[in-house]
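User: Could you check the structure of this?
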Amino acid sequence: MTAKNNFHHLVKLMARLRAPNGCPWDRKQTHKTLRPFLLEEAHEVLEALASRQPKKLKDELGDLLFQVIFHAQLASEAGHFDIYDIIQGSLEKMTRRHPHVFGSERLRTSGQVLENWEEIKRRERKGSGKSLLAGVPRTLPALLRAHRVQAKAARVGFTWARIDEAVAKVNEEIIELESALLSQSQTKITEELGDAIFALVNLARFAGTNPEDALHQAIAKFIKRFSKVETEAKRTKKTLSDYTQNELLAIWEKAKKNTRPAKAVRLQRGKPLRRLQKPGAKSSPAQPKLNPCARRR
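Assistant: Sure, the predicted structure tokens are below.
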């Protein structure tokens, strides 16, 4: 059976599962009930990518594809569209958004491609009243959503010109968070904590790091070091609650020394980054500015 026939067979299999004499579970499903499964399969694909196991990735991509076909079958039954309409729409969109490949435009760098991509999307949105940032899904994890929003804004020039300005913004937000903590206002604390995290996400983008990945690494590092603290407690036949806070911190510091990675290269380009100000120091608010190097429209 050819790959093309395999795809048609998979589509027909899904229709068979949804048929009157098909699977009771599949027949009960709706777009809404399938949402958690779609999210789960997408995360399993990401986990497979991280594992770098081609066989696992192939299996998980198959599961994700089946979810797409499942939703397409539901839409087809409602008379909206089918899987072939989805494929046709994707073909047309990708052809339209790659004029440097399928047309006469000449774009030499990936940066030029991204700028042109956003310009094409802007033309597609014209008259719709939609914002440039409307295409970023609200259901994305917050760190990833912040990263995508900032990246889209940066493509049209709304970004800091240098990384030291992004660092200054983090410093400014930390100072404001400290002030909110002193106020003991939960509303202010939540707002300023969000602003501080948002500024850190922007710094991550400047540093070329995905904040979601960075946080996952930090979590994994914490778990690894905490397990060493637990191991030490077992060795001395104690529970963690038997230790004083200072004793736990001492064990933690020992665990840090044993798991500390190689010293990172200092982030520096052109001139050193400005040092973060000490809590309470006066700071001039960092204001958003358009990158003068960005293409104007």
